[in-house]
Write a structure and sequence with these properties.
mainly alpha; three-stranded antiparallel sheet; 3 strands; disordered C terminus
């Protein structure tokens, strides 16, 4: 039985349903692997990774929230857990006492480094190795296009742009 999304043709439905299925299954698989091997969630891994890749020794919570596509309350909760485990530090920002800086500890850096091989192996097993080089190129192009479109979306809390009529795509 073929499923079809209302107001989408078969091609559009297949692409959309495939993408939403990956959205559901991949994060859960990454979480399972990281929990099993490193005792952390995928989001915790992303937070530690962003801190590792930051330009300085710390990042402001607001910048880290933006980098991890997270809300400040969610990030604050996760940072509380990471701080209790000794993986990060939080301190008031010297330039703006209302802001909080987050830094990766030596223990956090070691834990991140230990978790990377299993995480990369899982990414390879589930995604990279399943695709041909041509499919990887197509995936990179597709995800880049979608990411650029998503980056154009107004930030949460600002009025959304009014929808405009879109010409149907013509087959060539």
């Amino acid at each position: 039985m073929k499923r079809r999304v209302p107001r989408m043709n078969e091609q559009e439905s297949a692409a959309w349903l495939g993408l939403t299925t990956v959205f559901s299954l991949l994060p859960a698989a990454l979480d399972r692997q990281l929990q099993r091997d490193s005792g952390m969630t995928h989001f915790e891994f992303v937070v530690l990774s962003r801190l590792q890749l930051s330009d300085g020794p710390t990042m402001r919570m607001t910048a880290l929230a933006e980098a991890t596509v997270s809300t400040l309350p969610r990030l604050s909760h996760v940072c509380g857990r990471l701080e209790k485990r000794g993986l990060i530090t939080r301190a008031p920002c010297p330039e703006d006492r209302r802001a909080t800086n987050v830094g990766l500890t030596s223990a956090g850096r070691r834990e991140l480094i230990r978790s990377v091989p299993g995480h990369i192996a899982t990414a390879r097993r589930l995604v990279i190795d399943a695709l041909t080089p041509e499919q990887l190129d197509a995936l990179a192009e597709i995800t880049g296009t979608i990411a650029a479109r998503l980056a154009e979306e107004p930030p949460e809390g600002t009025p959304a742009a009014q929808p405009t009529a879109v010409e149907p795509r013509r087959r060539t």
